[in-house]
Design a protein that fits this description.
Strand content: 15-25%
CATH architecture of the largest domain: 2-Layer Sandwich
Bound molecules: flavin mononucleotide, adenosine-5'-triphosphate, magnesium ion
Largest sheet: 7 strands, mixed
């Protein structure tokens, strides 16, 4: 536009000047015309000047406007950039937020956020973990206080601990019993932390973890440790009692056979003896529980054993209870101590009888089962494999949840004083465990009880089957080397042996025994020795006697056997063993049985066993 004006302006000025000169110096046209022309030209010039001026002004305006618009554009661009940046940032934030939400939902744990600035500190956020854990949907949880997860077994102390932490706006960590929507209880490891902004409390965040499985394992471990501790204690007490009872009961037996005993003294001796026998049964059960009994196992079929024992069981339960057995035609063999298993059966059957005072049904069954990795993982000391499951089931009163976990504890009984000692199931537990097995129980109040006893199946047939002895009454003439550190037990055993005609060499420990062995001119037929003695153990004594007198046979006695010794199978496999408290009759029978046995090939009984 400006360039056009510039181009036009010059020719116009030139035309104006020519016209002016022509008008003045020529007599072209009338005077008024010349005057008009003379006036017009300056006017044109003025107009042109004005036009030029206005043009300049408009160009200036245009420039300014352009500058302004450029400014505005720049501003817009800046704003735009700002907006874009903000937009971009907000998208990133959004993505972060999304990621966080996703991460929270992927948590196995529950996450809850509550708003303590609203009445009742309601939930404002829960993740999916929470809904998975509790069974409550988001909508059901939002707006409520978390206490709706609590129930009848939730500890009031734990609730108070959380309450105090929340009031004092500090974090807390508790383990609390909660309930899912379907009513199933679970253990919740709950951690709660306050969230502050500008030193002002805005929210609480809670993380809920299901620790039910850990709690169960912890409970089982504690239960096992408790049983072991009680076992040690019981085993120790039983050991001391065994020595005392061997003396008390043995003396009673000897007194009864004594000539010239006053008539009025005999019933008293009988009473002492009865009490002593009862005490001996109790210590035997305690020992069985603490797995300190020396088992004398044989390989056998459990159904066959139960069938042999059935008559006695029927007599135990009375007429109101109907006994049914359910055994497979063929089943696995197990290695157990038959005497102990009979005791186990008796204890279970008596318990079932007591649980059915108005009669009912008692079923004893057996099945071969396979316990897999999954099954045994929860159990201590049980290996996966094939087992015979012996089931004893009754239709009696059953047990409630508070009784069930305690029934295997020694001295736990719900029976009136004088009725039950609480040792029956402790003994069952000990025997089954010592046989490498496992026992479980199912029971509900009013719905009866079922005990499952699992015994590992063995493939090899039994190696040692000792025929019962018929020789306890046979008088003896052999020489017995008696080694026992308890003077009372030693005297009793000597008296018992001498009363039957044996010649007894008596020693209080291994050294003295070896001395006697060296000095004795004749043959020593039998070494009757305690196992655990100061200075020299029974086992070492056996080896040293073997060197001096290779034909001497051996019987070990003990009231308590070190776990290690039992586990190493010293007695079970290699030696004859007499568990204390032994009776005079039992001692004489065992001695005769061992002396009458044909010598082992090679004849060196001691030497071959050492
Ligand atoms: C963030 C947060 C999470 C919570 N989660 C649980 C929970 O999972 N289970 C529970 O029993 N209590 C939970 N509570 C505790 C209860 O909401 C409540 O504070 C507690 O019962 C003590 O208060 P009260 O005595 O008024 O019931 C949570 C509390 C907060 C603040
Ligand atoms: N079959 C069963 N039905 C219901 N409760 C049972 C059954 N077996 C055991 N119990 C419960 O377990 C408790 C412990 O049993 P356990 O055999 O150890 O001792 P006890 O029978 O009380 O006494 P003991 O057997 O020493 O005479 C019993 O007191 C009883 O409460
Ligand atoms: Mg019982």
């Amino acid at each position: 536009m400006r360039a056009l004006v510039k181009q036009l302006l010059r020719p116009l000025l030139l035309i104006g000047a020519v016209l002016l000169v022509a008008a003045i110096f020529t007599d072209f046209g009338p005077v008024p015309f010349r005057l008009l022309l003379a006036a017009t030209v300056p006017a044109c010039l003025l107009g042109v000047l004005l036009f030029r001026e206005s043009l300049r002004a408009s160009v200036e305006d245009e420039r300014r406007a352009r500058e302004q618009s450029e400014d505005r554009l720049e501003k817009f661009a800046r704003i735009n950039a700002e907006l874009t940046r903000e937009l971009l940032e907000s998208r990133v934030l959004d993505e972060e937020h999304q990621l966080r939400v996703k991460a929270f939902d992927a948590f196995l744990q529950g996450v809850t956020i509550t708003d303590p600035n609203k009445p009742e500190n309601p939930i404002v956020y829960v993740n999916e973990g929470f809904t998975r854990l509790t069974g409550y949907s988001r909508d059901e949880a939002l707006g409520k206080n978390c206490r709706f997860l609590q129930g009848k077994d939730t500890s009031p102390e734990t609730i108070a601990t959380i309450g105090a932490a929340i009031r004092e706006q500090r974090p807390c960590f508790v383990e609390i019993q909660n309930y899912r929507k379907d009513g199933v209880p679970f253990w919740n490891a709950l951690s709660i932390a306050p969230i502050f902004e500008d030193n002002k409390l805005t929210h609480f965040v809670g993380v809920q973890t299901d620790i039910t499985a850990f709690k169960q394992m912890e409970f089982q471990l504690r239960q096992k440790q408790k049983m072991e501790a009680i076992g040690h204690l019981a085993g120790g007490v039983a050991h001391d009692f065994n020595n005392l009872l061997t003396v008390i009961n043995g003396c009673c037996e000897l007194l009864r056979g004594t000539d010239g005993m006053p008539d009025d003294a005999l019933p008293l001796v009988e009473e002492v003896h009865k009490a002593g026998e009862r005490a001996a049964t109790l210590t035997r059960q305690l020992l069985a529980f603490s797995r300190k009994t020396v088992l004398q196992p044989t390989v056998l079929s459990l159904p066959a054993l139960v069938t042999d024992f059935e008559k006695l069981l029927i007599r135990l339960i009375g007429e109101d209870i109907q006994l049914t057995t359910d055994f497979p035609a063929e089943g696995g063999l197990v290695r157990v101590d038959p005497g102990q298993i009979e005791q186990v059966l008796m204890n279970l059957v008596i318990n079932a009888r007591d649980a059915m005072p108005r009669g009912g049904r008692l079923t004893i069954g057996a099945r071969d089962v396979f316990l897999d990795e999954d099954y045994v993982r929860q159990l201590s000391e049980v290996r996966p494999g094939r087992y015979v499951r012996l089931t004893v089931s009754d239709t009696g009163c059953g047990m409630d949840k508070s009784t069930l976990p305690r029934i295997f504890e020694p001295f736990f009984t719900t029976k009136p004083v004088g009725k039950g000692t609480g040792l029956g199931l402790a003994m069952v537990y000990g025997v089954v465990k010592a046989s490498g097995g496992h026992v479980s129980v199912e029971s509900e109040p009013g719905r009866g009880t079922t005990f499952h006893l699992f015994f590992p199946i063995v493939d090899e047939p039994d190696l040692v089957a000792q025929p019962p002895s018929r020789h306890s009454q046979t008088p003896g003439c052999e020489t017995v080397l008696l080694v026992e550190d308890e003077a009372g037990v030693r005297t009793l055993a000597r008296q018992a042996l001498e009363s039957r005609g044996y010649r007894v060499l008596e020693a209080a420990d291994g050294e003295a025994a070896l001395q006697l062995c060296r000095e004795h001119p004749g043959e020593i037929d039998l070494l009757l020795s305690d196992v655990v003695m100061p200075r020299m153990s029974g086992r070492e004594l056996r080896q040293r006697v073997a060197m001096l007198s290779p034909h001497t046979r051996v019987i070990f006695t003990s009231g308590y056997t070190d776990d290690a010794v039992v586990r190493h199978g010293v007695f079970q496999a290699e030696s004859d063993f007499l568990q204390k408290p032994f009776t005079v009759h039992g001692l004489l029978r065992k001695v005769r049985e061992v002396l009458d046995r044909a010598p082992a090939p090679g004849g060196e009984l001691l030497g071959s066993r050492a």
